[in-house]
Design a protein that fits this description.
Shape: globular
Largest sheet: 5 strands, mixed
Order of helices and strands: EHHEEEHEHH
Number of domains: 1
Helix content: 25-40%
Strand content: 15-25%
Number of strands: 5
CATH topology: Aminopeptidase
Length: 157
């Protein structure tokens, strides 16, 4: 039986493996290593350990979510940074349970007014279509922007 619980430090290496495998096997193919995956999991665990949840099947981590709280003009916003489930455990509502636990906890502890996140469109418009079905919408006036730091330094005179 799958249990949703707060992550412990010893869960992070399994979370890092899931993250690496997912992001290296989708349309993004970002080149994650176990070291970079461990780094981001440790970063969010230190940042908001009370918002880092795992889905466990006995001792096996099969999914996780991590986030942080950002104060904003309209109140505290939950920045939903990552939600990942092992491919072999998908379609069992694990992502839904993780996200619901995260949002309920953030609402209770931080009185959040909004949930923000980023995602992508892969095969069959997933995972964006899943987020859309549960109430997320694209914010048309916002864009994810990215740059190489050297480009910025060299182009600003």
């Amino acid at each position: 039986m799958i249990e949703i619980k707060l992550a412990e430090k010893n869960d992070l290496s399994q979370c890092a493996e899931i993250l690496r495998d997912i992001y290296n096997n989708n349309v993004l193919s970002e080149g994650w290593t176990i070291e970079s995956s461990n780094s981001i999991c440790e970063f969010y665990f230190k940042l908001n350990p009370d918002l880092f949840f795992v889905a466990k099947n006995e001792d096996e981590v099969v999914g996780f979510t991590f986030s942080y709280i950002k104060p904003w003009a309209n109140g505290n916003q939950l920045m939903a940074e990552e939600l990942s489930v092992k491919e072999s455990y998908r379609k069992q509502k694990i992502a839904s349970k993780l996200l619901k636990t995260l949002v309920e906890t953030a609402k209770q502890k931080y009185n959040i007014t909004c949930v923000n996140g980023t995602t992508y469109n892969g095969e069959n418009k997933m995972p964006y279509s899943w987020y859309e079905r549960i109430g997320f919408r694209k914010v048309e006036d916002l864009f994810l922007i990215e740059s190489n730091p050297n480009d910025i330094i060299n182009k600003i005179k």
